[in-house]
Design a protein that fits this description.
With 187 residues, the protein is of the alpha+beta class. 22% of the residues lie in helices and 23% in strands. It has one domain (4-84, 105-175): Peptide deformylase (Peptide Deformylase). The protein has helices spanning 26-41, 132-145, 158-169; strands spanning 6-7, 46-48, 58-62, 72-82, 95-97, 105-107, 113-119, 125-131, 177-178. The strands form three sheets. A five-stranded antiparallel sheet has the order 2-3-4-7-8, with helices on both faces. Strands 1-9 form a two-stranded antiparallel sheet. Strands 5-6 form a two-stranded antiparallel ribbon. Belongs to the polypeptide deformylase family.
Length: 187
């Protein structure tokens, strides 16, 4: 089954620190293929392995640059270096969403620049210098590998609203998921 269910906020694997990948084998290739298919079906611009119940330090991304050039790839065992986050009021330009907190968007200030260092499916190291929304995506997916969802970073009154959504939706506990392409969720 290539498209996998996406876990919703509250499942333990989403809140745990993911484990480093040690085996670059067919099982990893199958996982990455399924992650791309799941991300595309959702649709999303990034997906971390914990979001589909796999506690490994892997995420995929797909976000073209300003000229429309494809930036699609996988980051395995990544490190992320960010510029200091600007202290300022949030705006609608800061609105962020998450496939593991579907249907909601909240503003969150992120660093404007990030440097991602990781390895690919062959174990070859690479580096990406990212800015703007691409830097936001890298920070968002990297957070997932450390057991942090973007709603965990929200300030009031947005945190209170997110908590209200969780209570009303029955989230915040293990066992909730949705299936891209089948469930009618505006992720």
């Amino acid at each position: 089954m290539p498209v996998r269910p996406i876990l919703i906020y509250g499942d333990d694997v989403l809140h745990d620190h993911a484990t480093e990948v040690r085996d670059f084998d067919q099982k990893l290739r199958d996982l990455v293929r399924d992650m791309f298919e799941t991300m595309d079906a959702a649709p999303g611009v990034g997906l971390a392995a914990p979001q589909i119940g796999v506690g490994l330090r892997v995420f995929v991304y797909d976000y073209p640059d300003d000229e429309g050039n494809e930036r699609r790839g996988v980051a395995i065992n990544p490190s992320l270096f960010i510029t200091p986050t600007e202290v300022r009021e949030t705006t609608s330009a800061d609105d962020e969403g998450c496939l593991s907190f579907p249907g909601e968007r909240y503003p969150l200030v992120r660093s404007e620049t990030a440097i991602l260092r990781a390895v690919d499916l062959e174990g070859a190291p690479f580096e990406l210098v990212c800015d703007g929304w691409f830097a936001r995506i890298m920070q968002h997916e990297f957070d997932h590998l450390n057991g942090i969802l973007y709603v965990d970073r929200l300030d009031d009154p947005f945190m209170k609203d997110a908590e209200k959504v969780m209570r009303k939706s029955g989230w915040g506990k293990p066992g909730n998921s949705w299936m891209p392409g089948e469930d009618d969720i505006d992720a």
